[in-house]
């Protein structure tokens, strides 16, 4: 898909984009303890359930972390990676260049009607997403899940890795999970891992990415973070959307990988 007007995809070198992807993985691991284990669980489910040439939709792909892992681990896999953040899309396009012919990166707004048209005519065996759909309101989340259910064939999978915070009915668990998050972040930042905002500051050192900051601000100006939805809401929304089987395949405190089979 054509990048935003006035940008030059080739301006950001692949090595610089790969470095930004690595820095992104590091900073995300500060916010998500054992993040590699959640990805391992997702890959194992794919390996055991999907064909050995899986066609993956990387939903809200960020700078390409899931696509990078899947394309490296599954030599016959293909991915379509979609996101709405122009900075992250630019990094993903260049960071995933090494997989030419096996990946497409598209500028897609999951809140907009018809976003699935980016997938028109493409096979989709599984939809993977990580630390992303919490930006959607409950109503928007249900619409996305319903669209994904229509995209997938019978037996197709959705795997959503994210924090699903404990509610007021589990105060001790909520406290333990919160203190654990704070400890992991403190240890990571003490050794120089970038924070979320510091990663964007690092990205802005590249003029072509800095030039996308105003567009990013415009796109998200009227989208404040919604209140977090519970695990129970996600499972119920997936059932309502038309998935035949839902559950979880991995958990560490309040961090889960949610599973849904069409």
Over the alpha carbons, how many angstroms does the gyration radius reach? Answer: 18 Å
Quaternary state of this entry equals single chain
* DSSP E strands, number: 7
Q: Widest sheet: strand order?
A: 3-2-1-4-5-7-6
Helical percentage? 40-55%
| H and E order | HHEHEHEEHEHHHHHEE
Poorly predicted tracts of residues: 1-10
* Number of H- or I-type helical stretches: 10
- Strand pairing plus helix content: what structural class? alpha/beta
The fraction of residues in strands falls at: 15-25%
Could you tell me how far the N terminus lies from the C terminus, measured between alpha carbons in angstroms?
Answer: 28 Å
Mean pLDDT: 94
- Judging from the principal axes of the Cα atoms, what is the shape? globular
Largest sheet: 7 strands, mixed
Q: Please, could you describe this protein's structure?
A:
The chain is an alpha/beta fold. The protein is built from ten helices and seven strands. Strands 3-2-1-4-5-7-6 form a seven-stranded mixed β-sheet, sandwiched between helices. Strand 4 (126-130), helix 5 (138-151) and strand 5 form a beta-alpha-beta unit. The chain is globular and about 45 Å long.
């Amino acid at each position: 898909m054509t990048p935003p007007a006035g940008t030059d995809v080739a301006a950001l070198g692949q090595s610089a984009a790969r470095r930004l992807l690595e820095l992104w993985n590091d900073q995300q691991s500060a916010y998500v303890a054992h993040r590699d284990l959640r990805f391992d669980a997702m890959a194992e489910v794919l390996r055991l359930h999907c064909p050995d040439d899986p066609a993956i939709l990387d939903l809200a792909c960020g700078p390409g972390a899931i696509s990078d892992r899947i394309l490296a681990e599954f030599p016959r896999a293909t991915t379509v990676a979609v996101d709405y953040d122009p900075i992250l899309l630019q990094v993903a396009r260049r960071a995933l260049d090494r997989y030419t012919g096996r990946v497409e990166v598209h500028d897609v707004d999951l809140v907009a009607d018809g976003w699935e048209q980016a997938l028109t005519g493409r096979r989709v065996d599984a939809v993977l997403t990580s630390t992303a759909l919490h930006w959607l309101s409950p109503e928007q989340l249900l619409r996305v899940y319903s669209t994904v259910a229509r995209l997938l064939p019978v037996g197709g999978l959705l795997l959503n890795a994210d924090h699903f915070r404990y509610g007021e009915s589990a105060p001790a668990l909520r406290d333990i999970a919160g203190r654990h998050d704070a400890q992991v972040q403190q240890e990571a930042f003490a050794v120089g891992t970038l924070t979320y905002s510091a990663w964007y500051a690092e990205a802005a050192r590249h003029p072509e990415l800095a030039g996308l900051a105003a567009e990013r601000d415009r796109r998200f100006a009227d989208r404040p973070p919604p209140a977090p939805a519970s695990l129970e809401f996600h499972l119920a929304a997936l059932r309502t959307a038309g998935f035949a089987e839902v559950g979880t395949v991995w958990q560490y405190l309040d961090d889960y990988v949610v599973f849904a089979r069409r």
